[in-house]
Amino acid sequence: MDKVLIRGLEINTVIGVYDWEKTIEQRLLVDLDMAWDNRQAAATDDYQYALCYETVSNRVIEKITEKPIELIETVAEMIATTLLEEFNVSWVKVVVNKPGAVKQAQSVAVEIERSQSASQAS
Ligand SMILES: Nc1nc2c(c(=O)[nH]1)N=C([C@H](O)[C@@H](O)CO)CN2
Q: Is the predicted ipTM greater than 0.90, yes or no?
């Protein structure tokens, strides 16, 4: 399966469950694996057939910084939904790292995979 990947997308936003977290911005690092058939873009060397990683990155940042969020699980789900609905990717893996969350850990993260057929499932 072809994919377009984004690694370490930095999002500074209001994120967290505790009161003190609701008054500051914290850094999230997001990794995205998006299923995309790259053959037509490669064969034609034409941008219109590519899944633009820059457009995706900008939209994800815009979406996640719109309002405060408590859980990184919510961030992951919002990103997956955006990619499935707005960019029509058939499958996506989203990893959301919150590197500052646990002092003793390099990072903590959640990982989800979603696809078009499963996007409406509970
Ligand atoms: N599974 C999760 N556990 C926790 C989260 C979270 O988003 N998902 N968040 C917090 C706090 O906001 C924490 O990051 C403060 O350091 C705790 N556990």
A: yes
